[in-house]
Amino acid sequence: MGIVSPKYPDYLLVGLESAAGQSFGLLGALVDSGLKSGREDRFKKIVGDAGAEIEKNFQPQLISGLTSNGFKVLALDSSRTKTAFLENYPQADVDAYLDVVFLSFGYVATGLNQQYQPHFNVKVRLVDARKNEILMDRIFTMNGTVLVDHTQIATNGLYGFKDVSEMEGQTEKVIEGLKYAISQASLAVTASLGN
């Protein structure tokens, strides 16, 4: 199986899925936009460059998990600018290509009175290398809105924060939560392929 280089989001998310300002028209949306920008700026300062380093752990963890399950795995370099599956896969002597796209990754509070918890939203596709047929198409979500075709991955509650201010004093815990999310994404993809 060839695992193409995963696509990660351009930035780490710190989001509030249901903000109060969203219910109050244009003025509320403007206020909410300002609050969102402030949250994101503060979160970037907390995490720094750690997010990109944490993302690099995903592919090796995935390869290790699949190898442990009996798959012969080959890492394939690929580049993409869009947050979408590749249209053409690199030439390789493999039976299938595994394509992983992170739509979002970071922390999300699913409501106004909910804690910010580690989050990811990941699309996964397995493609037959010879026939170019899609063998599997899945979306995994941890701590976020789950649509009909998504698979929900539970959080463990150990990395929750009431707000970004609480995160500011606990950088190490925030980063551990991101590492936890990456490992759970890897486990979910591995489990979806069975053996």
List the helices and strands and how they pair.
Layout: E1 2-4, E2 13-16, H1 25-47, H2 50-55, H3 58-68, E3 74-76, E4 96-109, E5 117-128, E6 134-142, E7 150-153, H4 164-168, H5 171-193
Parallel strand pairs: 1-3, 1-4, 2-4, 6-7
Antiparallel strand pairs: 4-5, 5-6
Helix pairs in contact: 3-5
What do you see in this structure?
The protein has 195 residues and is an alpha/beta fold. The chain is 35% helix and 25% strand. The protein has five helices and seven strands, in the order E-E-H-H-H-E-E-E-E-E-H-H. It has helices at residues 25-47, 50-55, 58-68, 164-168, 171-193, and strands spanning 2-4, 13-16, 74-76, 96-109, 117-128, 134-142, 150-153. Strands 1, 2, 3, 4, 5, 6 and 7 form a seven-stranded mixed sheet that branches. Helix 3 (58-68) runs parallel beside helix 5 (171-193). Residues 19-35 have low confidence and may be disordered.
